[in-house]
Each structure stands twice: as structure tokens, then as C-alpha cells.
Design goal:
Layout (H helix, E strand, L loop, with lengths): L8 E4 L17 H12 L5 E6 L10 E3 L1 H36 L6 H6 L5 H7 L3 H26 L3 H18 L1 H13 L7 H26 L1 E3 L3 H20 L5 H15 L1 E3 L1
Antiparallel strand pairs: 1-2, 2-3, 4-5
Helix pairs in contact: 2-5, 2-7, 5-6, 5-7, 5-8, 6-8, 6-10, 7-9, 8-9, 9-10
């Protein structure tokens, strides 16, 4: 029987088997070919489909890995990338509290390792230096903040509900996550002196500005009013209010959060005018 009449045979994945003489192919059954290839691979018996490659006489008997093997390699590569990203996220979450408590200037990778369950070597494998780790941590935290406020925007049924929900959420995060916000302002201030942080800080700032703009735009829509400020101005106003409240809260002011909530609601309303 001609070899071309044999269907594809199952052989181990990621392996190409070249037979010196294509005329010898009919002498081997599929089972024998499987044994030959399995032995050559060292016993790996995961099957994929291999097809006969047409070509010159010496190459007609060559069996090569088909698209299945390519897909397997791509899947393995994607899984490795996903695992690497997942591990980085775990390390960042563990390091974030130490960074928030110690601040930029007083924290090194070795300091973070001493206050976590991970060794200095492990941290250095996943993050090249402190700059990369800190920016990754802050970026991850701020991304979570953005989704939190997007949920308020999506569920608000009236301008009043949005105004109250926004003010309450900002007051709550001021109290509950003050050290995290302090780390953000520390990083942003450091970017004024160290351009290694500048691009990341700009991107985070822009994401926060877009978040604020979604809030004020939705408020104007629900209130049936028009906004009287641009996106950058709106962000500057709310960011300034929050930073000042944070300074007061860290200094021990008992009224910082309640004052912030009240001021945010007043300012939000003042940014619109009814047509």
C-alpha cells in the first residue's frame, strides 16, 4: 500500500521524524512508527497529528508537526506569560502595604523582602528595581479605584444619588486607604525630580482625570445641565480637595472625611449650569 494512502499517524508532539528513505515507509505499520518516534523522543507519548511532506525523493518520508503542535506551543507560551503576570500581581499586592507605610524614599527591594514572605531574589527576578515595583503597585491600585467609581456612575439613577455616592466613596477611601493615597502623592511628587517615574505617573494621572470626567459628565446628564469646566480643570479641583483632606486626615483631623464629602458634593454641583 502506498504511504500516501495511510492516514495521518499519531506521534509525540513537537517532533519531526525524517526517514532516510521514503521507500521504507510501507515496511512500518502505524504502531511501529509510533514506537520508533516514542523512543527517539525519550518516551514522551503525547500525540499530535503529523503529515507526510511532499518534496524531493529524500524528503518524501519526512513527518513533521502540523498546526496542532504550533497551537500547543502558542498555548504554552501564553500560559507562561499569564503565570508570570499573575506572580507579579501577587508580589505587588504583598509589597504594597510596606511601600504605603514606609514611602518611596525609605523603601528598597530588600526592605520589602524583609516585611513580606518573599525573598529579595524572588522580588528582583520579577521586578528589575524599586522603580518598576512601585509604579506597578500604584498603577494596579489606582486601576482598582477607577473601577470602583465607574460602578457608582453606572448605577446612579439620579443626579442626587450620584452626588451622594461619589462624596461618600471619596470620604471612605480617605479614611480606609490613606497610606495608599499617600504613596501615590509621594510617587507623583518624586516624578518632578526623577524622570524614571514621569511616564507612568502621567498615565495614571490621565486615567484618574478620565474617571473624574465620567463622573461629572454623568452628573450633568442626570441633572439636565451643562458643564462649565474642561476635563483638566475638573480633575485639578477634585484632586486638590482630596489631597488637602488627606493632609488633614494624616495630621489627625477628625473632620477631614466629613468635610471632604460635603465639599465634593458642593463642588460637583457648582461645575454645572442649567441651560
Amino acid at each position: 500500500m502506498d504511504t500516501a494512502e495511510r492516514g495521518p499517524c499519531d506521534v509525540p508532539h513537537s517532533l519531526a521524524v525524517s526517514l532516510d528513505n521514503c521507500q521504507e515507509m510501507p515496511r512500518h505499520s502505524s504502531k511501529e512508527i509510533w514506537s520508533i518516534v516514542k523512543a527517539a523522543k525519550g518516551g514522551d507519548a503525547r500525540p499530535v497529528k503529523l503529515l507526510r511532506v511532499a518534496g524531493a525523493r529524500g524528503a518524501e518520508g519526512t513527518l513533521r508537526v502540523t498546526e496542532v503542535a504550533e497551537r500547543n506551543r502558542d498555548r504554552i507560551a501564553r500560559r507562561q506569560v499569564d503565570k508570570f503576570a499573575e506572580r507579579r500581581a501577587q508580589l505587588a499586592a504583598a509589597a504594597l502595604q510596606t511601600l504605603a507605610e514606609q514611602g518611596y524614599a525609605r523603601t528598597s527591594l530588600r526592605d520589602i523582602a524583609q516585611h513580606s514572605d518573599f525573598s529579595h531574589g524572588v522580588l528582583h527576578y520579577y521586578f528589575s528595581d524599586k522603580i518598576e515595583l512601585i509604579t506597578y503597585c500604584v498603577r494596579q491600585y489606582k486601576a482598582e479605584c477607577v473601577t470602583r467609581y465607574d460602578s457608582i456612575v453606572a448605577t446612579a439613577a439620579s443626579a442626587g444619588q450620584l452626588r451622594q455616592g461619589f462624596g461618600a466613596a471619596m470620604a471612605a477611601t480617605l479614611v480606609e486607604e490613606a497610606t495608599m493615597h499617600r504613596l501615590w502623592y509621594d510617587l507623583r511628587n518624586q516624578s518632578l525630580f526623577d524622570d524614571s517615574y514621569r511616564d507612568d505617573v502621567r498615565e495614571i494621572d490621565q486615567s484618574l482625570e478620565r474617571m473624574i470626567w465620567r463622573i461629572v459628565s454623568k452628573y450633568a446628564e442626570l441633572a439636565g445641565a451643562q458643564l462649565v469646566v474642561a476635563s483638566g480643570a475638573a480633575y485639578a479641583v477634585f484632586d486638590g480637595l482630596f489631597q488637602q483632606a488627606l493632609l488633614r486626615h494624616l495630621a489627625g483631623s477628625a473632620d477631614a472625611a466629613s468635610d471632604l464629602q460635603e465639599n465634593l458634593q458642593r463642588v460637583l454641583e457648582s461645575l454645572t449650569v442649567r441651560g
